Fold this protein.
Amino acid sequence: MGQNGQPFKWSNQANPSHWGPNNACLDSPAEDSTAASFNQKAHSLKEKTEPSRQEHSFSLTCPPQTTVPFVFNSPHSGRHYTPHFLKQTQLSPLTLRMSEDVLVDQLFQFAPDLGAPLLAANFPRAFVDLNREPFELDPKLFKGPVPSNANQKSARVAAGLGTIARVVGQGFEIYRSPLSLEEALWRIGHYYLPYHAQLRDLLDNQVARFKMAVLIDCHSMPSRQNHLDHTPIPDIIIGDRFGTSASQDLVSHLIQLLKSQGVSVKRNEPYAGGYITEHYGQPSTGIHAIQVEINRALYIDEPTLEPHTGFLSLGDTLHEVFSTYVQDVSNSLQVPVAAE
């Protein structure tokens, strides 16, 4: 049942007779041919740069049984800054972390208790940004020319925030010197592509089981757009690419549940969802993607990035909201929900 005792309904219901087997979520990504080719090209860099992806470049936490059509994703909460990367940067570790969605994976650690997998990057956004196209490459960052088929002209690249970011925070340059293109391709091949292969596998498996999947893409945002902007930011912004990445019923119901807990919510302004929401959110194929942006002031001290007392209460609120949300959506599809 939804709020006020009314059943939650949405318009593209699955056919229960077509549900697939109720297996646990995958524990390793299927590396596609593109990833393999880039790994081969950059093999010579392997020993002198970062560890390979097999050394825990991301974490996948599976429920005992995957019983609901949800996937929770935290692509920007990675906090393993390798010695090699730290030597390349001219910034302090604290400044480098300005782009990090601090502890967002921990805020959503309840996901497996709801019967859904939780995927989270261990490497930081400043190292590789998973919420970009695979080859949004900033020509200002590299020693040599960028391939002509790379996206060099997106608004994100122009801001220095491509797949390999050039800046963090309020425009702080990350690197002491330009990077080689080979290192960028190595990072993409060993970190970006395997992560997205894993995410795609999780979503495809949910569609195979339930004829639908709901991706909850979890992020956090600064409490101010910049140091001169004092415009109040809501507690949470829900992004659905202006109504294109998810069923309107799904989005509206989540917003309703958040507001019922006293959470202030806006939709799509100023964050409508990035590459992940846009790329994977294809309701016509059964995959719905919703971005959740959380105001960092709710749970951390922004100057120090340390959690404060609001961390636990926010986690409890999110747990309550998404417990109800997963249950409502699953009940509308007659999907059995995992016991907590």
About this structure: The chain has one domain: 34-96+103-332.
